[in-house]
Amino acid sequence: MNIDDMLRNAANDVAQAASPSIPDAAGVRSRARRTRTIHVAGATLAVATVAAVAAVGIRAASQDDAAPPPVDVPPTTALPSIDPTTASNLVWSQQEVLYLRGSAVQVDDAYVVGMTQSAGGVVYTTDFADGDVFYQPFRGGSASLIGTNAQLAPVADPNSEVVAWIENVDGEGAIVVFDLEHGEVARAPARIAVKPQDNITFPGYSTVLSVSQEEVFYVEQGEVWVYRYAAGRPPESTGEKASSLLDVSNGVVARRVGGRLVFDRGGDSIESVQLGPRSAVTSRGMLSPDGAWFLGGTGAVDEEPILVDTRSGDQRTLGHGTIPRSWGLLFALSWVDDDTVVLRYSGAAGTAIDAPLESTFLVCTVSTGACVQAPVEGEGFLITTPLS
Amino acid sequence: MGKQADDEFSEFVVANWHRIFRTAYLLTGDHHHSEDLTQVAFSKAYLSWSRVRTLAHPCAYVRKVAVNETISWRRRRMNRESPTLDFQPDTEMPGPDTSVPGSLTLWRAVLALPARQRAVIVLRYYEDLSEAEIAEELGMSTGTVKSTASAARQRLARQLGPHTRQHANGGNG
């Protein structure tokens, strides 16, 4: 008997000897609806693999840069410092721990890798390739499983309880709109972004640009589509390339036209001043929830992120002179609310390839320009909210 | 979900529960965990039932969830616990050729394989899937399935002695 026959026989023998339980459809339904238990716990302190890989990418990217190698300077305390584990205006994750405005909840055996913030809580996915989507209310309690097969990170409307993601079931894609209070409200076919088996919610990355209670903007094969689900209309292409249409929020459309940013609001068009040679929107950038501001950045620490007033086109940089120059923005521009942005910088603590990551958040109030920093020693963070 | 779809889902569960449970049992060797896996896999199908029901093989979807859950489960608990068959020692099932390991002994060795190798073995020898089908189910290339199966057979042969070793390279799986 060869090993193939032996294995075949053994599999059948063992399978037949097993005593299956009684089919329990009611239990299955109950489980599907049941909330997922999570436990309040302290933070864990191991190095996050995904963050480490991303950091290697940043280092590699910096090596590609034609500019002279940056000279590291240690972080200073020039900015007021806060404790990120207790900061009441921060929502972020580190490995299996989710920090919700000062409280910490541990996610069972999973790293939180895709987060987005609704009015009432956080929607997130984990590092498992199953695309499960969970909702954790700010008010506390347990997280709920609200969906499966999300291919990339979900994106929520910070002003309501609506969230959207691209779903992939065996290569069949769909744009899904989910109301956190009332369940799924709409879905429509959509072409998936990457190959079928990759249901990997990559940190901070999503092809959904924005969602509101009326419509969803998302990228499909390099083109921006809009799904006006509240009006019962099917998805339709906007005819614009994703490389030029950067974001849509509260009726404001942000575009990159040549070396400028252009903001359209109800027929009025405002241009920003000429951007720098590296076009400070290498990342897509994000409009504030109210559409009043646009935040963008290259990811390189020597080019400060820009903040553009979409009504006037005036722009300014967000100061971060205290960050080591070899560090980078790591999937981490996000709006906490209409007046607060969070930037997360990460970098290696030393020059060795396996040097541990260190990170710091900058939390900036747009109206005053004031920032505080929330440093964490010897650790690389995962994402805050998706950088669409 | 409407009553008709709900009833349809219940019928689907009843018709396929044992099959999925047995696959889960071969993957885990643990009755309790197999039941848990089976329930998780069907519950995910329930959440997506409006689409799963339209697939050509809805049961394959559930199996895929179970297999990938098993791999995730193993990864989550890596270095914390190892799967073992929860049979009693006197339940060995000798094969027709008494010079080769019995099924129970052989399957204990299978359970000691890395999760992906084990999944390939179960899908190949119990579910009777082709390499291409296994590749699709596990999200890997056909070449990776071949090399994974080969590595699994080699490892089993090393564990189980000379009789299996001489056949380890000759498998078709």
What does this structure look like?
- The complex is a heterodimer of chains A (388) and B (173).
- With 388 residues, chain A is mainly beta.
- Chain A contains three helices and 29 strands.
- Chain A has helices at 3-17, 25-33, 49-64; strands at residues 35-36, 39-40, 91-94, 97-100, 103-106, 112-117, 121-126, 133-137, 143-147, 155-156, 162-169, 172-179, 183-189, 208-211, 216-220, 223-227, 236-241, 245-249, 252-257, 260-265, 268-271, 286-287, 293-296, 306-309, 315-317, 328-337, 340-348, 357-365, 371-376.
- Chain A has a five-stranded antiparallel β-sheet, with helices on one face. A four-stranded antiparallel β-sheet of chain A has the order 2-5-4-3, with no helix packed on it.
- In chain A, a hairpin with a 2-residue loop joins strand 18 (245-249) and strand 19.
- The longest helix of chain A has 16 residues, at 49-64.
- Chain A is globular.
- Chain B contains nine helices and no strands.
- The termini of chain B are far apart.
- Chain B has 173 residues and is mostly helical.
- Chain B has helices spanning 3-28, 31-47, 49-52, 58-76, 103-111, 115-125, 131-138, 142-160, 162-168.
- At the A-B interface, helix 1 and helix 2 of A face helix 1, helix 2, helix 4, helix 5 and helix 6 of B.
